[in-house]
Amino acid sequence: MISKTEFKARRQKVLDYLMDISGKKKQKAVFKSGQQKVFSNDVHYPFRVDSSFYYLTGFAEANAVCVLDPYADNPFTLYVEPFDVKHEIWDGYREGLEGAKKNFAADQSFDINEFKELSSADLTDFVAAMRTIKSQAEIELMRKSAQIAIQAHRVVAEMITPGIYEYELEAALYQVFRQQGANGWAYPAIVASGVNSCTLHYISNNKKIEKDDLILIDAGAEYEYYASDITRVHAASGVMSQEQKDIYDLVLAAQEKAIDSIKPGISFGETHDIAAAVIAEGLVDLKYMKDRHDVEELRKFYMHGTGHSIGMDVHDCGIDKKTAKYVSGMVCTVEPGIYIKNKKIGVRIEDDILVTNDGFDNLTIGLAK
Questions:
Q1: How many angstroms separate the CA atoms of 67 and 89, rounded?
Q2: Is pLDDT of 239 > 90?
Q3: What is the model's pTM?
């Protein structure tokens, strides 16, 4: 869990920054938790708090507003839904105004209905940069999220057999996530067999698995609002064909070389170029490409980036994937892939990598490849 002290330190950074940028104009910052959305007329979709709002407050209820004002006697104000007996009967407990102060260290709290829209400094980029570098507490939550996802992938790998449906594997993933204490999934799981493995964001998960299929499983848990993101590929029959194995081995070699390159100062773009070069060379050797320098031809097989930042959001904020450089405390994915639709071969291998002072720590190394 993130301590109250850490949440307060995050808010203080924002307050100090507001003082620095204000000049003659005294600026405030406003962050909103988000609204609940109605599902099927009478119930709500499960609510997931805005990540930056939670990052600064630790408060996870809907329809709340945080105001940070470095010039006020009470710099941290929370506007929240008040405690309501009827609401508690139907929908559960609310912290209310007292809880906002007692449990979340608000200097003052008010009924959300008293909130009036006000001018706010745009701190999107500043908070995103803060979120990019993880504290020790955040890293431990991400380790836990990764371990939950690893356990789910292991359970599902044992279930794979020709004749089973993709959605049966999806259901098992979600069951393990919740059994292990995760909030649920960090993103809808991809369970893609056969030709579906060549659709990058396939989530229908409704095909029967055939004996010659590869099954690409891209699934991660969310634990205490922190994500994991893992992809593994399996053969339905337990044994890959030579062609499938050649592609798998090539992706694995590209991923291993890309991971090994990670250290502070290296850019995301450089890591991508390393993976792409391995794949291009291999595809030429396997006679899928003629020229390893033909970027357009390579994109027919490998059309996405090699990784992204990960944290409270599975595709976390704060970086440009081409120009950003790795910094100690950053967590990112490394996920090269090759997709050959007419062969029904889609292979992507993905791990979550913590950048350290002198290299990296693979948070998902415990799951076999």
A1: 30
A2: yes
A3: 0.95
